[in-house]
Specification:
heterodimer, A: mainly alpha, 11 helices, 74% helix, 0% strand, B: 275 residues, mainly alpha, two-stranded antiparallel sheet, 2 strands
């Protein structure tokens, strides 16, 4: 119950800052919109492309990507690195009678919900305006498994970003890590285009990394591009990643907290 | 006599401005090399960002030979021009505007407004991000290489026009950013507007022709961004036309005047009370 209260308090704060949330959502919308525009021209001028994915498939991919980015891509690492570690606010959390990991999750969750709702709104608006037919999964079992995939994706995203944020305990300048992370996410996360379009080697590397399991697999699962067996495989891989990343988080937390001085940097 | 005095005063003022900017250049350099670890990390991150869009274009064009009349090589040339352009913009402009956004948020803009220089000029002169010059160097090197692969001969007039258009484009982008940042005077909570502006600048990475398909009410606001990179790249590709040049400079003048008007108007509403 106390976690729910923390969530509600943060929800009030985020709702009060809905203008900021909307701007963050616009950022999530911009990249897929540009890629979609690029592909619409590419499909129009290169007939061969049609044999991979049709325009409606591409449109649904990038629109779902917008929603998935808003709902699932966590941005807690900057808060952890700059506010908590660099400015010394972590001390406050250390005195709380509940784990830092959960406390920060309750802080982040309202942002994801509000931005995700903006994404859903934009998605519906696009469908109403353009009247494009978009294919989704309709089988109840597939819907349930797709929901599980989305929840696990949020788990991977959150744990990974927490780990990245904690790296600020060892570095004086965190911007370098942030910029490298941004580029890696863009390339291996399926944000540029569906990973099946990638050159073979890059595609295989992407499947090996956890980033593809945050946005790419949830999107193609909802699109119905995966069979039920493939969806189960994705769930298993995601569970492994959640376990590995959480173990890593615990290790980094226990080692890093010894370096924390409580006066900021 | 009065004319002579005015000339002497003008010359002194100019000397003073140059001296001031020289000091700012030195101060910014000293700040950069203060922490060597950070210095190296920043170099690496700058190189990563330089490669970022090149990789994206390589991926996007791995299945398609041409898009919107632009071949793969031409699109990579556009991406390398982006590095030159954005490198200059980040070196001299973006950090200052970011700082202005912070000043508005914390109610510290008064310090900038009280300086004995034009208030709009005071928005861009304080911070110089030398690290971004790496992107300029990277972009220029790649541009020269690509010009060779595209069998285009580089001439002196081409270089002069290219840089003139790039610098004008930097001013155009500054004029595009400034009205958005002044929005914070009316609503200081929009402190993430700068991150949004960094993102929306990505529009410039793609050819202008891509946006021509959009409805007019979306295309027109995006036109400045669509022009700032397409124009210098067309100079290199020898596809620069009088119509494109006219459009480019007309948009630049209109946007520059608009930014100045909005800035002056917004300052009247600045309360200095922060968020």
């Amino acid at each position: 119950m106390r976690y729910f209260r923390i969530f509600l308090l943060h929800f009030q704060d985020v709702f009060q800052n809905r203008g900021r949330s909307f701007i963050y959502f616009l950022m999530a919308l911009l990249n897929p919109a540009l890629q979609l525009l690029f592909w619409s021209g590419a499909i129009a001028s290169n007939a061969g492309i049609e044999s991979y994915w049709s325009f409606s498939d591409m449109a649904s991919y990038y629109l779902l990507l917008t929603i998935a980015t808003s709902f699932l891509v966590v941005h807690i690492e900057q808060d952890v690195a700059f506010l908590d570690i660099k400015e010394g606010r972590l001390s406050k959390f250390l005195l709380h009678p509940f784990p830092y990991f959960i406390s920060k999750f309750m802080e982040e969750l309202p942002w994801r919900i509000i931005q995700g709702l903006f994404g859903l709104g934009a998605f519906m608006l696009f469908i109403i305006i353009t009247r494009i037919s978009i294919s989704f999964i309709s089988n109840p079992l597939q819907i349930i498994v797709a929901l599980v995939i989305c929840l696990l994706a949020l788990g991977i995203s959150y744990t990974l970003k927490m780990i990245l944020g904690l790296l600020a305990l060892w570095t004086t300048d965190f911007w370098g890590i942030l910029s490298i992370e941004e580029v890696i996410f863009l390339i291996f996360g399926g944000f540029v285009m569906p990973l099946t379009y990638y050159p073979e080697l890059l595609e295989k590397v992407s499947y090996f990394l956890p980033i593809a399991y945050i946005v790419y697999f949830p999107v193609i699962a909802v699109q119905g591009k995966l069979t039920i067996n493939e969806m189960y495989q994705v769930v298993i891989v995601q569970l492994i990643w959640v376990g590995v990343l959480y173990g890593l988080y615990r290790l980094i937390w226990h080692r890093g907290i010894r370096k924390y001085t409580g006066v900021g940097q | 006599m009065a004319q002579r005095d005015s000339k002497i005063y003008g010359s002194r003022a100019m000397k003073k401005s140059i001296l001031l900017y020289r000091r700012l250049l030195i101060a910014n350099w000293n700040a950069l090399i203060e922490y060597r670890g950070d210095f190296i990390t920043q170099i690496i991150s700058s190189l990563v960002f330089s490669l970022n869009h090149i990789i994206i274009v390589l991926l996007l064009t791995s299945k398609v030979p041409s898009v919107y009349g632009w071949s793969r090589g031409e699109l990579i040339l556009l991406a390398s021009t982006y590095n030159v352009f954005i490198g200059i913009f980040h070196t001299f402009i973006s950090r200052n505007l970011d700082q202005i956004a912070d000043d508005i948020y914390f109610g510290k803009l008064d310090y900038v407004l009280l300086k004995p220089i034009d208030s709009q000029l005071a928005t861009v002169i304080w911070k110089i991000n030398y690290i971004s010059l790496i992107r300029v160097l990277f972009g220029l090197t790649l541009t020269v290489y690509l010009m060779g692969t595209l069998h285009i001969i580089i001439t002196v007039p081409m270089i002069v026009v290219y840089f003139f258009v790039i610098i004008t484009g930097v001013y155009m982008l500054y004029s595009f950013w400034l009205p958005f940042i002044t929005l914070m005077i009316f609503n200081p909570r929009l402190s993430n507007i700068v991150i949004f502006l960094f993102n929306i600048t990505n529009v410039a990475r793609y050819p202008k022709e891509m946006y021509a398909r959009l409805p007019l009410y979306i295309f027109v606001p995006l036109l400045p961004l669509a022009l700032i990179l397409t124009t210098p790249t067309k100079v290199l590709l020898q596809k620069f036309t009088f119509e494109l040049g006219f459009l480019f400079f007309a948009v630049c003048i209109v946007l520059g005047l608009f930014a100045r008007f909005i800035w002056k108007l917004s300052l009247r509403h600045y309360t200095s009370a922060s968020s």
